[in-house]
Amino acid sequence: MPESRQDWNNPEQAHLLGHDERTPGHSHDHGHLVYPATGVLALLTAEGSWIAPPNRAVWVPGGFEHHHRAHGVTDMRLVIMPPELAGLLPPHPAVLAVTPLAREATLALTGPAERDAAARQRLRRVIIDDLTAAPEQPLHLPQPRDDRLLAVTRLVEQDLSGPATLGQLGRRAGASERTLSRLFVQETGMGFRQWRTQLRIHRALLLLTDGVPVTGVAAACGWANPSAFIEAFTTLVGQSPGRYQRSLRAASS
Questions:
Q1: For the HTH araC/xylS-type domain, which residue ranges apply (predicted)?
Q2: 224-230 contacts at long range (C-beta below 8 A, 24 or more positions apart)
């Protein structure tokens, strides 16, 4: 892994973050891509969290206040995009699929080799072309604001393996199931079950990074059986949990 280079004025950077290390809250004038070559990286804002394993990158438009949190030793690569390329990406934070070609271009751009401005721009163009060829990835966990929803989400986070229904959680939080169901869609853009699945996948990524076996992750995150977990994980992350965990071990060796 590279040594961390802390010159934030340099548009292409590599930062080595330790497990559970967090960056201070900050924003950039220009949009930038954040790619974890190893480890898992979470981007946290007031609007929610986005999580990226090594086959995903997080896009952060200019001006968004945010901070990063590393899960596992994380080789974080940062590529700032000029306005003409940033305009091709979403106007909001997003998780994007990283192809092998985009990965190699990102590593080349953020590596130690000196390249002239024209070469760096060509590499950025390769990255953008590949990232925009695939749809936005569903690894965003919106942060609700309503106090009743926050109470429910805290209950879910405290017992992720629990099978409690929204109605049962609502009785503990002092709100009806109908009200909570409406608020979930209104504030997060998804229903309660979809939101909880997203949370479970986020937690699963972190547990897999910590080396927990797939069967243990499935149980800890609330799936009744490993096959259901594997199906949900593969749909959202793009690879099975076993393959994902093996790729982490290979990257750190």
A1: 150-247
A2: 229/204
Q: How far apart are CA 9 and CA 159, in angstroms?
A: 42
Residue 6 lies in a domain: no
Interval 11-59: pLDDT, tens: 578 899 998 899 999 888 889 999 999 888 999 988 889 989 888 899 9
Same structural domain, 76 and 149: no
Q: Is 56 helix (H, G, I), strand (E, B) or coil?
A: strand
Determine if residue 89 is left, alpha or beta; phi over 0 gives left, psi from -120 to 50 gives alpha, anything else beta.
beta
152 shares its domain with 117: no
pTM passes above 0.85: no
Domain presence at residue 138? no
- φ and ψ at residue 247, rounded to 5 degrees: -65, -35
